[in-house]
Amino acid sequence: MQIDEEFKLLQKGVSKVVDLCAAPGSWSQYLSRKLRAAESESDVKIVAVDLQAMAPIDGVIQLQGDITKESTATEIVSHFSGDKADIVVCDGAPDVTGLHDMDEYIQAQLVLAALNITTHVLRHGGKFVCFRGKDITLLYSQLKIFFKEVVVSKPRSSRNSSVEAFVVCLEYSPPEGYIPNMSNPLLDHHYDLDFNQLEGVNRVVVPFIACGDLSAYDSDKTYGLQ
Amino acid sequence: MSQYKAICSVQRVTAALLVELAADLSHQYLLLGTGSEVCLYSTESGKWSFECKSDVLHGRVVHGFRKGNGDIIAVFGQKSVTILKLSIEDTKQIKVEVPLIEFPDWILDLVWFSDSSRYAFVTAHNILCIACAFTGSVLEIHRSSINCILYSAKLLYSCNKKVIKSAADVYVAAGTVFNDVIIWNRAQCAESSTPSILHILKGHKGVIFDINIEYDSQLVSSVSDDRTVHIWHYDFPVNGARTWCDAKFQLLSVCHGHTSRVWAAVILDHKTVISIGEDANILVWNVDGSTRKKIKAHKRKNIWCMAVSNNYLVTCGGDMSVKSWELSQLLHAEDSSESIVREQINAVEVKDFPRTVCITGSSCFMMTDQGCLLARHLAQGSKLCVLLTDDRFRGYTVMSSTWAASDKALIALGSAGGVLRLILVSHDLVVEAVNDLDMCTGKVMSVTWLFDANPLSSPLLLVTDTNGEMTLHEIALGASTLSVSLMGRYHLPKSKQRFVTAACLAYGDDLLYLVCADMVGSLHLYVSEERITETTSLATLPTCSLSKTHGKGGLTDIHFFSNYIHTVGRDGFYNKWSIIDSQLVNCSQFKTSKQFDWIAKLIPEGDGNTKLVVFHNTEVLLYDLLAEQVVLRLDCGGGHRSWAFSQAEGCHYFAYIKDKTTNLASKAATLPCTRLVGEHHSGKITDCRMFSMRGRDFLVTSADDGHVIVCEIVNAAFSHVSHEREAVLKTRCSTLVHISNTKCLTLTPSLAGNDDVLVFSGGGRAQLLVSVLTCDADGEVTGAVKSSMNVTKGVSMFRRQSKDDNSEDADVRIMAITSHPLRHYTHLISAACSDGTIKFILYDEGTQLLHLITDFIYEHTHCLLTLDCVPVSSDLTLLISGATDGRIILIDFTQILNSISGNLSKMTTRKKVSNSKSSSNFTLIQPFMQISVHQSGVNAVSAQCYTENTLTICSGGDDNCVAVSSVDLQTKEVTSLKHNHQHSAQITGIQSLTADTFVSVSIDQRLHMWSRPSPSDDKEWGVESSKFVSVADVSTLCCYRDLLVVGGEGLVMFRRSHM
């Protein structure tokens, strides 16, 4: 929510939103409340996709489907009557294995899968917001291919000790001639070079922007109970 | 230009393999993968020895080993594979046969072709690849029709032959994100081009972490996030082919027993499965799903991986330790009530019944109602003997037994009529000597052997009479006589039930003391007397008496060892005391486990470990303090008056009297396990410091497991000859325990003029702990907790908290801490806290008291994260703190020091006042100045004054930014240079080294060395060199001489060398 305020994600004109890996649906609820208040209800379309079924939310179309399947992308687009989405959000956090490197890898794969389906459903100039559990440097390079601006942001409401942050991608502009393709998903195969360079420093580093009000409650601070 | 080189590390083991090598079948070998390193161990008969290690994966993490023909081992981790050859002739060596090859995708499992010329591997995208073993070139790629991320996979042989000649012989069992196990093959049918899914095993309710197979018994195991182990059985149609295609799978059992996620399971044979998991338990299952055994094998959380051979099970825990278990004992010593031998021993006469019981050595002694002393050996079915019968001991007897010379037992009996009888009994239960003494006119209230007496000296017995007079007797053993001489006479203060329940001798202040506890739980200290004559008139009075040291239930056992008096009680607490000026001073107090509220006995083991006998519900438990685990559990029904416990001849014995019968339960001693790698922290390391003491180097670490651990850094001196990693960390002491997590620590030399080092550590629940590290000539370090304080209340935490104490500010955390020596053996401690305050506390080394100075406090609106103290000039010292709002706050520390120094004596004597809650009239300190350089939390600051009046502050933030700020201390002008593009995640450690160099470390696992060409040019900071740090979740950095330690989930030590 602080992310929205900082980046004005849901400004006027945003009416078609996709929420990937939506369960349990906190973003969907927020999106629904915010957009349906601002726009005339008929224009607003929110599609929430998850592997699991989730509780119904007013004004949210729910799809139970796999984001790695093309049929899911087609189904999303069909709900926007052929139009593409203005913004795609993905708040999914995969199950953790306890192995730090493996968790990081799986998280990256989830975001890549989300990015892949996003290339099918997002309009040019659209926005993509995804959750970052751990540091995924590698991912940024891929995102930069598809978006003009990529920023990592951490809500001030998130604890200082937590590594959780969001990657906010603005202005979708895929490389010329890029054809979205589900059958040959965007694996990280093609971008491996930076990652291998373990001792080097020339990796892609994206800007960091803290968002939220400093006067708000500090989640790290201990407050008196009185 | 300087360069850092990793010289040693403490990290979790991520892969293990037990192998037999063709070149040497007499030994069993073990490969362990920690970070990017492979370590080789060997054993001949259960005793493991370290052979060698080698960094083979260069910055990646080892995830598995697979053995091929001719003692070659494929090591895989992340996306890479390397092939090693183990050379075990004269010198054991790990040779790289094929250097590291990086593949495009994450490798989950690998299998060798039968001729070892190729290997197949399966990746996280469910892709099977075949690669040439020598070149690493990928020869074939096969994709599954199910395209999803796998959490685990295992490559299988075909059902009928363990031979792989082509990709068609390799079958993939994959654990998908959809919680299924799927089995597929490149092409089951000869010419089909699309891989076919042969089986889908549905049942798990979470992702699959591990899959295993046992071909002979036709079993497959899978483990999952859902805390279960699933055991599947496969079979073939009667007349069908024995192929995977025709196999029929059936879910045989679902094993519930782990209390958290299950990481791995192996099938041993047709009836046994072993699993490990996040709960740090080893579970042995019968294939029908019933639990055969459950062992808490490691401290706290997690057993990450295991290796199994015919003889051994090796487990690698979250506490960093590696343990080897004898498989035969693990499987056969059944952990059920059947393994407990129970016997009932009745009195000889029908009307008679046992009243008291005790055990010494391998014998059990009972005194009956009729005054009959019975004895028998503990071994099952031993014969019961009547030693003595005496009417004077009818109805009432106090009894105690102890070891005497040459395997004999010495029994003391006290009667209602004041008679003390001493009986010496030989190992074969023959009475060798008896001595009766008239002790007193009334009852003998208690007889207590002082177990801690020097083993060479004669046994000492403490007898209490009805008037509270205690007499200490020395018993001299003759051939057939027992002579008794009076050693001392002591006065036990009046109380409701005035007799001794536990006692020991202790040394302190160069004197010998007697310490004893009475029935109401008071602890008394007496100066021990010289040998006295019978006629000495007055009994010695206690120099110190403390009431209710273990709550209402009272104290149950006292021992003196390692220079402390150790007490346990029915409040579940374990206390350590030392004697200072003839007073008992509490040095540490902790609750052993939340569940235990009745500790009955303390057993010092002599090797630094201690075991406790604990009553819990209807069970009696034996608890290992070092391992923090219950090693024995016996159901005794509870509610018995007389009991005895002993460990003898590999067996635990527990005797108790219930329903007028002596019940004797025995159970074989716990499983022998060998530690290959010792324990370290079982949580994330939060802070570290290095120091030297008596010419040795040490590393002190704190972690969120609440422990502070001291390790000696051995062989850290740079050797130009060997360029191997040459430092070893030897854990020296790890006894300092916080009640919650430990966040920070600081060290300072003691002002007492010896070589001791003080450790001030802070953490959760506002706890500040003071401990002293002492080092003897052999490098043995002992750590003693001297004081503990809740810094929000200013009260000692050794005192038990009354219930209403928890009402306010219950969870303030001390985030960072510094100390400053003052005069008069006093230190001033500054503690930056999560409530936005910096609190100032005085510590007096003489009185060992902490005193919160409530007069000075700094308050900020945000949580403080870091603290550094910098002497700027002779008349200005600054405290520098970083907060979660991105601000760096500078405080004039000199002002505080000056006003404290002026009133030092006044302040320390005023401690009584400060304990009252009313003292809220503190002076708020105004910051010297504030600097806003970061967008969010300042995780690390390091400041130095390299030129006069200019302070250089290096800071690292949560916003991935490294900032260098120059502060002109006269004009208070600040120039900040921000570097946003060198780290890709939050910076968690920074250290200024010289005016032109500093180091920074981040969650992105990079250690950067920064420098600038000329000091005058402020704009030219750049990363000179960079190192990959194999530790995840890096949280701290510390430099000492040429050593640098990075801590997080484990630690790595680097040495700086100049190039």
UniProtKB/TrEMBL annotation, chain A:
Primary localization class, coarse: cytoplasm
Domain Ribosomal RNA methyltransferase FtsJ: 2-172
Family annotation (InterPro entries): RNA_methyltr_RlmE (IPR050082), RNA_MeTrfase_FtsJ_dom (IPR002877), SAM-dependent_MTases_sf (IPR029063)
Pfam families assigned: FtsJ (PF01728)
Species assigned in the record: Bugula neritina
Keyword Cytoplasm: yes
A GO term from the CC aspect: nucleus
GO function terms (MF aspect): tRNA methyltransferase activity
Name of this chain's protein: tRNA (cytidine(32)/guanosine(34)-2'-O)-methyltransferase
Compartments it resides in: Cytoplasm; Nucleus
UniProtKB/TrEMBL annotation, chain B:
Keywords carried by this UniProt record: Cytoplasm, Repeat, tRNA processing, WD repeat
Keyword Transcription regulation: no
One GO-annotated biological process of the protein: tRNA methylation
Main location: cytoplasm
Gene3D superfamilies registered for this protein in UniProt: YVTN repeat-like/Quinoprotein amine dehydrogenase
Intervals holding WD repeats: 201-232
PROSITE patterns: WD_REPEATS_2, WD_REPEATS_REGION
Pfam families per the UniProt record, alphabetical: WD40
Keyword Repeat: yes
Compartments, as annotated in UniProt: Cytoplasm
One GO cellular component term noted in the UniProt record for this chain: cytoplasm
Family as reported in the entry's similarity comment: Belongs to the WD repeat WDR6 family.
Protein name as annotated: tRNA (34-2'-O)-methyltransferase regulator WDR6
Record organism: Bugula neritina
